[in-house]
Specification:
The complex is a heterodimer. Chain A is an alpha+beta fold. In chain A, the strands form three sheets. Chain A has a five-stranded antiparallel β-sheet with strand order 4-5-8-6-7. In chain A, strands 9-10-11-12 form a four-stranded antiparallel β-sheet. A three-stranded parallel β-sheet of chain A has the order 1-3-2, with no helix packed on it. In chain A, a hairpin with an 8-residue loop joins strand 10 and strand 11. The longest helix of chain A is centred in the last third of the chain and has 19 residues. Chain A is globular. Chain B starts with 5 loop residues before the first strand and ends in a 23-residue tail after the last helix. In chain B, strands 1, 2, 3, 4, 5 and 6 form a six-stranded mixed β-sheet that branches. Chain B is of the alpha+beta class. Chain B has two domains: 88 residues, Beta-grasp domain (Ubiquitin-like (UB roll)), CATH 3.10.20.30; 82 residues, [2Fe-2S]-binding domain (DNA polymerase, domain 1, Orthogonal Bundle). The chains are: A alpha+beta, B alpha+beta. Chains A and B meet through strand 1, helix 2 and helix 5 of A and strand 5 of B. Bound molecules: flavin-adenine dinucleotide and FE2/S2 (inorganic) cluster (FES) (2 copies). One FE2/S2 (inorganic) cluster binds next to loops of chain B.
């Protein structure tokens, strides 16, 4: 499968990359998603601007305030390898290792993961199949093949890092022609499957920053997928909580629960986090938390597993996350 | 490191003259921006050991080492690979002697149709370069992006273990044998 013809420009600074943006231009980071969809003729930009050569976008390091700064062009392998050597960030490293495969993590980047296009079994197909169904909402048509009468696109945000990062309370720094701005990671997502990323076409995600974890923080990311070695998430639950002490019996003091791969955008389920506040996490609490998460899920029949199964699995994932947090 | 990119016209097609450092040697290639490293390795430079399986990042048959890291060459542009060290399966044997991984795959019988083998061995090579004594779980994890439809993986894992054991026995005897750094840039005007 050849790529459609384009010209490639390797940017060396954020300013240069932004100035090259425009209609028909897309940013290329690791290319593990964009190049695949270009081979499938989902995208055919006339120009790709490479971000890998911009020094500012690289690196993982702790900030002076005790937080963590991750450059957008950092590969997922680099993030995982760094985080796994530092005890207070190692749970983030474990989560990163649940993304795709070792080979894909060696090239795929944190920025590309957050700006990932949404996926749908009617959309991520070679052109010959898509032609049979006709253009859907995401391709500029006026139907949704997944939900027949829907006027909105149901393609699923299937990145693995957004859920964990949102649960840790991460922010994103974005640069554009008008300068830089910092926003919570959840604001990177529009919630519209057709145009999932909130960045303007001439804006670049520069880095994400996690605040210093509170004392006794614990974290778990539980992912549902077909093959544990490579597949995209079919549902994901991230649970981040601060505790009032170490070990079993400690109580949650502030908790964030995020649902990902459940619809067009990852969502922080505030009510569920609130319900856990003050509690000692036990598996039994899954029965109380799961309905709150299920209420936020927008799963439909457009992924490798049925919507009903994915929704049922939310409680299982919550139970596993609680078990991991029991201490 | 950057190489000057000279553009020449062949009809409406823009070709870039680039230098690729493959298996320790510099090669000149004329490529279009949208050509993948895999296609250039196979079709222009003759390194057909890199296999084209899915061509979309799912199977690992196209795995090569880029600066010592295992990557899928079907998802890397040739123009992005300039100035970097590329190692294909053809680059592992030295002076007519197979790499311990190659010998072990052969001896154990970890090869059936062989289509996955170059990628499998290069992923294993990248693992052993960073971790000369991996556990079975670490071997399985490192190879989990390389799909094999024939062997069932058991003998592949055995072969990597055997090669690791052999390497640790011979430790110190042989210096690092793979060209992991790009050669210095070729002299101006040479090789093109
Ligand atoms: C077989 C297979 C399995 C996969 N499995 C998973 C999985 O399990 N989980 C998962 O999360 N992903 C998975 N992926 C998708 C992908 O590999 C990862 O999401 C990866 O992190 C994407 O990063 P990238 O750098 O390769 O992105 P690219 O392909 O380079 O870019 C993706 C998109 O983000 C935009 N972009 C990239 N960087 C920036 C930036 N700094 N600023 C603005 N826009 C930017 C690009 O323009 C493009 O639209 C899989 C892919 C394949 C082929
Ligand atoms: S050919 Fe590159 S991953 Fe299959
Ligand atoms: S030996 Fe046939 S695919 Fe692995």
């Amino acid at each position: 499968m050849s790529l459609p013809r384009f010209t490639y420009t390797a940017a060396t600074s954020v300013e240069e990359a932004c100035s090259l943006a425009g209609s028909g231009t897309m940013f290329l980071s690791g290319g593990t998603d964009l190049l695949v969809s270009m081979k499938q003729r989902i995208h055919a930009p006339a120009r790709l601007v490479g971000l890998a050569g911009i020094p500012e976008l690289h690196g993982v390091a702790e900030t002076q305030a005790g937080g963590l700064r991750i450059g957008a062009a950092t590969t997922i392998t680099q993030l995982a390898e760094w985080a796994l050597t530092v005890p207070r960030w190692s749970a983030l490293g474990d989560a990163a290792l649940k993304t795709s495969s070792p080979l894909l993590r060696n090239t795929g980047t944190v920025g590309g993961n957050l700006c990932l296009d949404t996926r749908c079994s009617f959309y991520n197909q070679p052109a010959i199949f898509r032609a049979r169904w006709g253009a859907c909402l995401k391709l500029g048509g006026d139907v949704c093949h997944a939900v027949r009468r829907s006027t909105t696109c149901h393609a699923v945000y299937s990145g693995d890092l957004a859920g964990p990062l949102m649960a840790w309370g991460a922010t994103a720094t974005v640069a554009g022609p008008a300068g830089t701005r910092t926003l919570p990671v959840e604001h990177l997502f529009t919630g519209d499957g057709a145009r999932p990323c909130a960045l303007a076409s001439d804006e670049i995600l520069v880095r994400v920053e996690l605040p210093q974890p509170p004392p006794y923080a614990r974290f778990s990311y539980q992912k549902l997928r077909l093959r544990d070695s490579i597949d995209f998430p079919l549902m994901g639950v991230s649970l981040f909580a601060a505790f009032d002490g170490p070990g079993a019996g400690a109580r949650c003091r502030g908790c964030r629960i995020v649902l990902n791969a459940a619809g067009p955008a990852p969502v922080v389920v505030h009510e569920a986090g609130g319900l856990l506040d003050g509690a000692v996490p036990t598996e039994e609490l899954a029965a109380d938390l799961a309905p709150l998460l299920r209420a936020e899920a927008r799963a439909v029949g457009n992924t490798a597993a049925g919507a009903g199964y994915r929704i049922e699995m939310i409680e299982v994932l919550v139970r596993r996350a609680l078990r991991a947090l029991e201490g | 490191m950057h190489h000057a990119r000279r553009r020449g016209n062949r009809g409406h097609v823009t070709l870039n003259e680039i230098i690729l450092h493959v298996n320790g040697r510099a090669y000149a290639a004329r490529v279009e921006d949208h050509w993948t490293l895999l296609d250039v390795l196979r079709n222009q430079l003759g390194f057909t050991g890199a296999k084209k399986g899915c061509d979309q990042g799912s199977c690992g048959a196209c795995t090569v080492l880029l600066d010592g890291i295992a990557v899928q060459s079907c998802l890397v542009l040739a123009v992005q690979s300039q100035g970097r060290s590329i190692v294909t399966i053809e680059g592992l044997a030295r002076d007519g002697r197979l790499d311990p991984l190659q010998s072990a795959f052969h001896e154990v019988g970890a090869i059936q149709c062989g289509f996955c083998t170059p990628g499998m061995i290069l992923s294993a090579k990248a693992l052993l370069l960073r971790n000369p004594d991996p556990s079975e779980d670490q071997i399985k994890e490192a190879l989990s992006g390389n799909l094999c439809r024939c062997t069932g993986y058991v003998k592949i894992v055995q072969a990597v273990k055997m090669a690791a054991a052999e390497r640790s026995q011979a430790a110190g005897a042989a210096p690092q044998d793979v060209a992991l750094r790009a050669d210095p840039a070729p002299q101006a005007g040479s090789g093109t």
